Amino acid sequence: MFKKHPLKQIAIAFASCLLASFACAQTNNTLTPQEKADGWQLLFNGKNLDGWHSYHQSTPGKDWAVQDGAIRLERGRAGDEKDFADLVTNAEYQNFDLKLEWKMTPCADSGVMFYVNESPKYQETYETGPEMQIADLACTKPDSRVLNERSGDLFDLISSNVEWVNEAPLWNQFEIVADKGHIQFFQNGHKVIDTYLWNDDWKKLVASTKFKAWPDFGTFHQGHISLQGTEDKGDTPIRLWFRNIKIREL
């Protein structure tokens, strides 16, 4: 009887395991059957910027594009702001669970905002929308060296106690859960922020920061999701990428 060589058996087993893992790996910018059943929806299809526009514009600014299955921003320090104006969803959301991945060139800066109001009375997204901060580990000046302005923080309001951020150019995972004013941020699977909007403590907190200059900041219960493109930190060209953007309404 023919006897298989042990090394050959090991090689076959390894190849089988590798193929199985590839088969089980989820393709970027797709939903699993279970995610679909649970009510998740893609906010980015991996091919174009359908469903998005730049703030106060009808289409995305020209510095936003799709590259290799990711939304990419590429900009310099100068130029026309409408070209890199913050990207916002066409739709508005109230109670939701939002997940996405991002990466950047070293020392760049950005953020994910929510409850953004697009009324003509507001010139910028951050006049109304709270932000989950994006900043490179240690080298984004001054943000990565200032409490409340590091990656994963509720920008300029609440700081996480640990930076669970991967340095550029590695991918990072963000999750924002907003449920009837209860806000939770997760960075790379770790909860970094847990707070409540709209109550007296929230109003006092906002009043102690620069956001007091915008009386409607953090007051809306529904609004757009926004990817920030207007920060100019880091070496040029400044590049940011976003992918696997999905949302489940609660």
Task: Write up this protein.
The chain is α+β, with helices and mostly antiparallel strands and 250 residues long. The chain has a single domain (30-249), classed as Jelly Rolls. The strands form two sheets. Strands 1, 3, 4, 6, 9, 10, 11 and 13 form an eight-stranded antiparallel beta sheet that branches. It has a five-stranded antiparallel beta sheet with strand order 2-5-12-7-8. It has helices at 6-24, 33-37, 81-84, 200-207; strands at residues 40-42, 52-54, 64-67, 70-75, 87-89, 96-104, 109-116, 131-135, 172-179, 182-187, 190-196, 224-227, 238-249. It contains four helices and 13 strands. It is globular. The model is unreliable at 1-24 (pLDDT under 50). It holds the Pfam family 3keto-disac_hyd. This is DUF1080 domain-containing protein. Residues 1-25 form the signal peptide.
